[in-house]
Amino acid sequence: TREARHMKIAVAGAGVVGLASAAGFAELGHTAICVDIDKEKIASLQRGVVPYYEPGLQELTLRNMAAGRMRFGTGIHEIPADTEVVIMAVGTPSDPDGDLSLTAFWAAADELADWIEKCACPAVVVAVKSTVPVGTADSLEEKLRMRLPPSESGRVDTASVPEFMREGSAVKDFFEPARLIIGSASAQTAERLTSLHAGLPGRVIFTDRRSAELSKLAANAFLAVKISFSNEVAVLCEQIGADYNDVAGVLGSDPRIGPHFLGAGLGFGGSCLPKDTRALVRFAERSGAPQTLVEAAIHVNRQRTERIAHKLEEALDNPGASTIALLGLAFKAGTDDMREAPSVRLMEELMRRFPGMELRAYDPASTEAARGIVPGQVRICRSAEEALRGADGAILVTEWPEFGKIRAIDFRNWMKRPIIWDGRNLLDADELNAHGVRCIGTGRPILRRIAFDENS
Ligand code: UDX
Q: N or C: which terminus of the chain carries fewer CB neighbours within 10 A?
């Protein structure tokens, strides 16, 4: 049983994970301060404006600010001394070697050590939500305790509470977690974190700190493996004339496999899956337990853009003299996040392989975010129609519902040659093909050299 007891908590880091957690815990009745060294971000939040696109987060934040359960600060020194739980949610991006960069994390830990030493807080649990290498919560505890006299070292304890929320559904995922992981070395800490989460559904899995840390990396790596597996089977389908949609339906109906993350496409991207899989590979290598499957998943992911370039080459007479429209730029539909977006790799591959190809791109959310990230030669359009007008072909990169609403007649009226490579199998290929639009899906038989009817 989880007993509700309202606590004073603090969250370090006001990114999606930090802010959604702070606002979510405030909604559960706790009092939260969310701190970040980014003064602009904090100033915006203090005005009640969430400075990025995340459905529901704005309302949740405003409601809890108005109720007096949530406020913001520009540093750890602003955390009140009677805070019971400090959640570490600072970003851990990839460093150039593919490891997780802990620069911001340890900088925050240093500030936290000063705070614990000076403020004489009675007993604080520091719960790590940032995705970190295994052993980080252990090292953090050692670092914080070193600053206290030995008789007082028990004033601080660390735990690992990894976060699995997805961008675009962070608020929903906070309130409906598939499971909650509490990795700690002491029963009191586990108990305090259990009451922190009281009110949330989902099974609580208690474990040690290292297992909790590894679970997060392993879960993301498993999802990456599942996607790359799907993508390789899809290529096989294209080669032999089988339909991946049907194969995936069969796979997904087996409860041992499960229906999710079997979607073939241009590969996985985003701020987590690519970086966490790389980090696991590096960490595992150093630990003497190489993760060859995960390495292969990364390799397969890199080949996705070559595959689509190959498919274009197969179907177009003169790709170098063609104009191609890309629909979807951000790493997935429903977000404006361009981090490790497959669209960027795709554009680079097309430009390298087909010098002279003219590229245009449209995304319903990331027009602004995409500027400066996509290669300069690519024209960023304000609508799908603008991107498609006069194009010799289009590639559907992400599954925004608005792309699914474009009718065969629109494709035919707007495009010079109505041919679509549907990267996510969003469109009704049979319907489009029946109405004179060539739709080449992913994991569906490749059509060899299409004969265009110039008058259609
Ligand atoms: C992911 C994890 O899902 C989440 O648990 C973790 O905490 C952070 O990383 P997110 O980065 O928001 O969340 O993206 P997600 O929705 O998982 O998609 C990741 C990538 O995989 C996207 O590029 C998406 O397009 C791709 N994907 C997903 C597929 O190619 N096929 C699928 O079937 C599912």
A: N
Mutate to test the pocket of ligand 1, among 272, 302, 305 (most ligand atoms within 8 A of CB): 272
Name the residue with the closest Cα to ligand 1, atom 2: 166
Residue nearest to atom 6 of ligand 1 (CA): 164
Cα of 268 to ligand 1 centre, how many Å?
A: 7
Q: Out of 1-15, 117-131, 271-285, pick the least confident.
A: 1-15
Q: Name the domain count of the chain.
A: 2
**Do residue 216 and residue 146 come from a single domain?**
no
- Per-residue confidence (pLDDT) for residue 366, from 0 to 100: 81
Ligand 1 atom at shortest distance from the alpha carbon of 17: 7
**How many angstroms separate the Cα of 271 from the Cα of each of 91, 262, 331, 341, 343?**
10, 20, 9, 9, 14
- State yes or no: 431 annotated in a binding site: no
Report yes or no on 1 lying in a domain. Answer: no
For residue 87, what is the domain's CATH number?
Answer: 3.40.50.720
Read off the pTM: 0.94
Instruction: Give me the active site residues, please.
Output: 272
- The rounded distance, in Å, linking the Cα atoms of 210 and 177 is 21
The model's pLDDT over 408-441, given as tens digits with 9 standing for 90+, comes to: 999 999 999 999 999 999 999 999 999 999 999 9
In a domain, 417, yes or no: yes
CB atoms within 10 A of CB 393: 24
Q: Is residue 56 part of a domain?
A: yes
Flag whether 268 is marked binding: no
**Three-class SS of residue 350?**
helix
pLDDT above 80 (res 334):
yes
Identify which of 305, 11, 300, 16 has the alpha carbon closest to the alpha carbon of residue 172: 16
Residue 159: is its pLDDT beyond 60? yes
109 forms beta bridges with none
Boundaries of domain holding 378: 209-456
